[in-house]
Each structure stands twice: as structure tokens, then as C-alpha cells.
Amino acid sequence: MKERGYPPSPPPKALPSYCSDLKMTDPSVLKNYLNTYMYVWLHTRQCFWFFPKRLDERWVAGYVWSFGEWVWKQFEIKWIDSFY
Asked: Which residue from 6, 26, 58, 79 lies 20 to 30 Å from 43 (Cα-Cα)?
């Protein structure tokens, strides 16, 4: 289910460098990033701009920037390797 409130604009143009200091160790940290832009690296080596809207103990859902548009996605928090 899509949430209302698309991100207000495209994500920043600059892509952050991978930072091992921001490893996902505590999923509750993500609540501080709801409705904000964040860059995510997954354990699968995928990386993307993300605008999280919903969070529970296992899942995070929101908008992923993909080919010039925001697309609704959800995935398990344990898939996140690092974020910025």
C-alpha cells in the first residue's frame, strides 16, 4: 500500500561514498530517518536513494529513486548493510 506524501523533490544529485561507520546495527535508528532522504546500501550490493515512510520491527517501506522517478518499495531491515 502506498503512503501519501511523495518526496517533495528528486534526491540530491551527489552520491555519498560508502561508509562502514554507518553500519545498520540497530533498526530503531531508522525512525529518525522517516520522511527524509537517505542513501542505502544493501547486502546484495544494491544502493539507492530512499525516502522511508513506514517502519516496523522487520520491514521498512517507502519510496526508492529509480530511473528518474519515485517508486514504492518495501524490504526487510536486515537487508540494509549501511546508510547515509
From this structure: 6
